[in-house]
Amino acid sequence: MEEEEDAHEDADYDNINDDCARYMMIIMMMMKRRRRRSMLISMLLFMLLLLLLLMEKIMMMMMVMRRRSLLLLLMMIIMMMMMMMMVVVVVVMMMMMMMMMMMMMMMMMMMMIMIMMMMKKKIMMRRRRRRTTTTMMMSSNPNFKNCIYQHLILIGTMNV
What we know:
The chain is an all-alpha fold. The protein has helices at 2-33, 36-63, 70-94, 98-126, 137-140, 142-159. The model is unreliable at 1-13 and 131-139 (pLDDT under 50).
C-alpha cells in the first residue's frame, strides 16, 4: 500500500517539474524579447502556478487527513493566503517602478523559501517513522526547490 502511495507521489512530482520547466522556458522567452509587460505577465503566471500547486496539495491532504495534521493544514492555508497576497502585490507593482518590484519579488520569494524550510523541519520532527503524503511537495522535492531558486536568480539578473 505504501509503495503504491510513493509511486503516486513520484508521479505527482514529475508533473510538477514538467510544469515548472515549461514556465521557466516561457519566462526565458519573455526575457529574450525584453518587453517589460510580458516579463511581468510571465512572473504573474509563475505565481499562479505555485498557488495552484499548493491548492492541489491541500486538497490531497484533506483526503488523507489525520487529527494531528490539522495544524499543518492551517499552516498550508496561511501560506496559500500569502501567495494570494504576493500575486496582488505583483499586479500593484506593475503600475510602479520596475526596480522596486524586482526587489519586492526577491524579498517575498526568500520569505517563502524560509517558511518552507521551517515547515519541513517541523514535519520531519513530527514524522520520523515513515514518509507520508503530508510532507510538502515543495520542501520534500529538491527539483521543485531548485526551480524556485532558478526563478530567483532570473529575477535578480533582470535588473543587470
